[in-house]
Structures are given as structure tokens and as C-alpha cells.
Amino acid sequence: MHSAIETMLEKYKLISNEDYKNALKEIVQEIALLGLFRSGFFSKAAFNGGTALRIFYGLDRFSEDLDFSLLAPDKEFQLSKYTKFVKQELSAYGFEMKIEQKIKSVESQIKSAFIKGGTKIHLLKINSINPPVTGVHANEQIKIKIEVDIDPPASAKYNTKYQLNPIPYSVRLFSLPTLFSGKLHAILCRNWSNRVKGRDFYDYIWYLSKNIGYNLEHFSARMKQTKHLGENKILTHQNIIDLLSHKFNEIDFEQAKKDVLPFINDLSQLDIWSKEFFIQITEDKLLRSIS
Asked: What is the DSSP string of 25-81?
């Protein structure tokens, strides 16, 4: 195992196979970010979503995907130009993984690719405990989705953050209020189908607990882009509180809890989840950013 990977593993509490799987995914994510940095990707794009929130802002749950947004619309953007650097970087640290571009049958503003590799073989590479890895199917795969929004909504704000492992590098990412705006949009507008994404609600509590405000201009731009708000409509802070309260009345919070369980350690914090809880904390704690 590469010495830099040993150092990266030290921050994890590794007991079960699930602990090792989560650590493996996150290390792969961070090496992928390093590869994107080397490619010059962050001169054109910014990191966002739950993984950005965990790695750079301290969210206390694991996240699966790598989400990005271009700084300006670019319909000609080619993700493959950058993912080849990700594959090279992973290989340099001993991770033999494929990167497959997702070809969509209809035009989309999202460009996608998947990092894929055998779970068991890579757990064996990082797992020095005895007995060796058991209970992991030989065909099980680690799969991390990379998504890039090539037609980003306006008024996003950015920060630059630095990582020291496996080597020093920098990442451009959304500011916390801009990230929170994306989360509010997801809660209100995500197509749930038959599965409520409880991770959205877990993250929502995290933002409120940190007294983070949201970027109203960016949130409004997102709502207009997805046709959830008319072009000439103006949202107020109270409008957003009312929209959220209405949404919370519709949510099956037992289903939401089941979604988030695999990503957190302290399950007892979900006991209080209910529509009354979310409505009350929204009225008491939701702040608009003044930046």
C-alpha cells in the first residue's frame, strides 16, 4: 500500500467491512479530485454537493458521488478530456479502476462518468487487518459517479480550499450559502419517485445547526431554470419558509430515515425526525445569507 494511502486511512475508525468500504470510496474520491486538479479542471468548474460538503466543510456523513458545475455554460464541454487524468492519478496510487463515460439517449445539461473497480481487490490493498476481508462478493464493485452541470444557474459564489493528502492541491468549490441553496432546491424540487432521499434532510439539519444562510439569488436562479418559478416572479425569505413547510407536510420521514442510515454512525439522531420537527426548526433557524 502506498504510504500516502496509509496516512489517509489514519483519520478513519476502521472496524467493519462497511467502515473500510466507506474509507475506500472517500480516498478514491479525493485522489480523483487531485487528478482533476492536475488536469486544470477547476479553472472551468467548481465542486458542489454532499461530497464537497463532507471533504471540505466537515459534514459528518459519507457521500457517494462527485458533483460539479461549470463556471459558465458550455454545451461543447467534454468530460473525457479531464477524466483521463483521474484514471492516471488513481493508477499512480495503486487503484486499477476504469472510468466509463455515460452516453445519454437524450440531450442533457449533465455530463456523467463512472469510476469503477472491484471492491474486494481494492479492500485487500488497503486492509492490513487480520483476518482478511470476508463477506464481500468477488463481483462487487465500487462505483463513484462524476456529474458536471454544463448549464449552471447564475449567481453562484465560490471558495478555494486546499488539501494536503495525498499531496497538496487546491479545489474551487461552491461557498456554503451557495451549496445550501442547491440543497433547498433539491428538497423542494427533486423527483422522489418512490424513494425519499433522507440525505437531503440530514444535510439540511447540518446547515441549520451551523447557522449557515442561503444564497437567495442563486436559489431563485435554480428555481427558474427548472421551471419551478416563473421568470418574472420574486421569492422572499417567507415564501421559502412556506414552501418548505408545505413540503415537510408531504414527506414520509420513516422512509427518509431508511435512506440515510447507511451513511451515518449515530442512528439515534434520527429519532426526532417528523414533519413538526422540520417545520419548527425551519421557522426558527433558516437564515438568508447577507453575502
From this structure: HHHHHHHHHHHHHHHTGGGTEEEEHHHHHHHHH--SS----EEEEESS--TT--THH
For residue 257, the SS3 value is helix
CA pair distance 110, 83, nearest whole angstrom: 15
pLDDT band at 134; cut points 50, 70, 90: low
CATH architecture of 3-174: Roll (3.10)
Amino acid at 17: N
CATH 3.10.450.620 positions along the chain are 3-174
Residue 130: pLDDT band (50, 70, 90) is very low
Beta strands 287-288; 169-174: pairing state: unpaired
| Distance from C-alpha of 16 to C-alpha of 29, rounded to nearest angstrom | 20
